Each structure stands twice: as C-alpha cells, then as structure tokens.
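Incident log, support desk, overnight shift.

02:14 A customer reports that sequence design results differ from what the structure should imply. Their input is reproduced verbatim below. On-call engineer (initials T.W.) acknowledged and began investigating.
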C-alpha cells in the first residue's frame, strides 16, 4: 500500500500532509490577497488546482486498476472509499475543485461589485461546505444583478452606464 520514490516511502498520510496545506494556501491567497493582479489571481485559480489535479491524476492512474467497488451504488462507493489511496484521491478531488470553484465565484462576485467583507464568509463556506458556498455566491451575485443597483464605484472602461 506504499510507494517508494528513491529512498522515500510515500504513503497516503504523507501525501495528505502536503495537499491540505497547498489548498489552504490557495484559500488564504483567494480570501486575503489582492485581486488587481492577474498573475496573483492565477495562483488560486489555476496553479494550485492544477497541481492538485496532477496529484489526483497520478493517484488515479497508478492506484485504481484492480480496486474493488465502483460508482454504480452507494455500497460500491463505500467499498471503493475503504481503500486509503482511493479516499485520498477523493479528498484531493474535493480540494482541487472547491478551490477552483471558489476562485471563479470570487472573480464573478468581484465583477458584480460584491465587497470583500461580504465575499469572505461566502468563500469560507465554499471552502468548508463546497456546494453550499457555491449556491450562496451565485445567489448573492444574482440578487445584486436582479436589483439593478449600480455596483461599480467607477465606470467600466468604455461603459457609460451599468446595465440592468
């Protein structure tokens, strides 16, 4: 159940200890970092999720052949997730997708004029509760757009008004 890389024994617990802090770094940058720099925004939007996705791919391609279980019933999912490598792959999947979705929703809320203080708890809920945070972010953006309240403090380049 272990993998050797040179003299290093790689276990699910060792990989778990790396992927969690990587995702947490992305969330801290997303919530507290500036949004005015495209290169900075790329870190939680593309770079960290891509790295986590590469770990996920390595786990899937190296460990999933011959594993028991499957996705056709809850019982088979339980059997699949009883393997620590499969469980780790599932966790990395969550980390990568939740961070990517959080970064996309943060950019959308930013463009809609949602303030950073309002965004922070929404992004935290996306981090902790995934789909619930996504739903709250989408409803927040939709609510602002539906109320047709001007949300920009300065006009957009080339725009003479905020569309309803």
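02:41 Re-run completed on a clean worker. Output:
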């Amino acid at each position: 159940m272990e993998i050797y890389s040179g003299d290093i024994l790689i276990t699910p617990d060792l990989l778990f200890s790396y992927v969690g802090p990587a995702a947490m770094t992305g969330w801290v940058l997303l919530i507290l970092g500036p949004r005015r720099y495209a290169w900075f925004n790329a870190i939680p939007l593309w770079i960290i999720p891509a790295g986590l996705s590469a770990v996920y791919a390595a786990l899937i391609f190296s460990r999933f052949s011959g594993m028991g279980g499957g996705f056709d019933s809850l019982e088979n999912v339980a059997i699949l997730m009883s393997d620590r490598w499969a469980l780790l792959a599932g966790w990395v999947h969550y980390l990568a997708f939740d961070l990517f979705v959080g970064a996309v929703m943060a950019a959308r809320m930013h463009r809609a004029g949602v303030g950073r203080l309002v965004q922070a708890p929404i992004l935290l809920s996306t981090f902790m509760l995934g789909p619930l945070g996504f739903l709250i972010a989408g409803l927040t953006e939709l609510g602002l757009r539906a109320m047709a309240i001007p949300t920009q403090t300065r006009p957009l380049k080339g725009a003479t008004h905020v569309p309803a």
